[in-house]
Write a structure and sequence with these properties.
alpha/beta; 317 residues; 9 strands; 3-stranded mixed sheet; 13 helices
Length: 317
């Protein structure tokens, strides 16, 4: 390359005193470029890996700008948003009881994840549910909710949340559990796509001990996850499942030694899932939907909730 430039300079004049310095400068420049080029290539590759291509970054900005910010009307949820991942932190002291207010906020958020007919509106690829309370993930259904006289009762909304978790195929829902999760909380967790546990995770579907059945889909979901025999063992005996046992049963994808490692691993998985096209995520979830309870099965379980709870033995319990 330097020789070609030099030959071109020769045609401009024949003064030896002029050409020689120019030749030396071009040669020095060529050597410098040759030395710098590998470093420049490595730097550009590093920047691409770290920050992604300009097209990818532009797509992420577009997704964030065209996504409606979720709202917690009752202040029971807080949201951490990135272009493709939303972290939902549950905070309903003292035990994250499924009160009417918490259920309403969860219901409104889940509705916001349903894809819009507008192609400009985006939804998160991944949603992580976690808790601000280190001792509780989500507790049981508040029985005061049964006294509600509103048209849309908390029980109706709780059932709807479970169905949205299973039927919204464009988003992967992950439970990050590091505390007690009982009753209705376990029903919601078992209907999420994945569950990861910290050292203090403790799950129980205790309804049988109180003389009634779980009404929001938890019992029906547990069977396909851990198998009929083990589901019956834990449901009929109202047994508690710790993090290690839950992983061995397949209820948890994995369990981790600390809350910090749990969060790091869940965030890492969510970011990786978010790298890939949402259409593929949607089709993959849809193809596995046959493993979830059918709408008819869920409806039948709801109709059994009242009669079972009204028996004399259940009332005595």
């Amino acid at each position: 390359m330097a020789n070609k430039i030099f030959l071109h300079v020769v045609h401009l004049g024949s003064d030896h005193n002029t050409i020689e310095p120019v030749k030396m400068q071009i040669h020095t420049l060529f050597v410098s470029l040759t030395a710098v080029l590998p470093l420049l290539t490595t730097t550009l590759a590093h920047l691409h890996r770290r920050h992604g291509s300009l097209t990818q970054r532009s797509d992420e900005v577009h997704r964030l700008l065209n996504r409606a910010d979720p709202v917690s009307k009752n202040g029971k949820l807080t949201f951490t948003l990135t272009p493709n991942v939303t972290r939902v932190t549950i905070n309903n002291p003292p035990i994250n009881l499924l009160t009417a207010e918490l259920i309403s906020d969860l219901y409104d958020f889940m509705l916001s994840t349903v894809p819009s007919s507008s192609p400009q509106t985006t939804t998160p690829k991944v949603v992580i549910f976690s808790s601000a309370n280190p001792d509780f993930f989500i507790s049981h259904f508040d029985l005061k909710n049964l006294q509600s006289n509103t048209a849309t009762t908390p029980l109706t909304q709780l059932v709807a949340i479970g169905r949205l978790l299973q039927n919204t195929t464009s988003t992967a829902f992950i439970a990050e559990i590091n505390g007690r999760t009982f009753g209705g909380g376990q029903e919601l967790a078992s209907q999420m796509d994945m569950r990861f546990a910290g050292p203090y995770a403790l799950i129980s579907q205790y309804e049988n001990s109180a003389g009634f059945v779980a009404q929001a889909g938890g019992q029906l979901s547990l069977g396909p996850i851990i198998g009929k025999a083990r589901a019956l063992e834990h449901l009929l005996a109202a047994k508690q499942i710790d993090s290690r046992t839950g992983t061995q049963l397949g209820l948890f994808n994995a369990d981790y030694a600390t809350a910090a490692i749990l969060r790091e691993k869940v965030d890492g998985l969510a970011k990786r899932i978010a790298l890939f096209p949402q259409a593929a995520l949607n089709d993959t979830k849809f193809s596995l939907a046959f493993l979830s309870p059918t709408a008819r099965q869920l409806d039948e379980q709801i109709t059994r909730f009242g009669p079972v709870g009204a028996t004399s033995e259940a009332q005595a319990t």
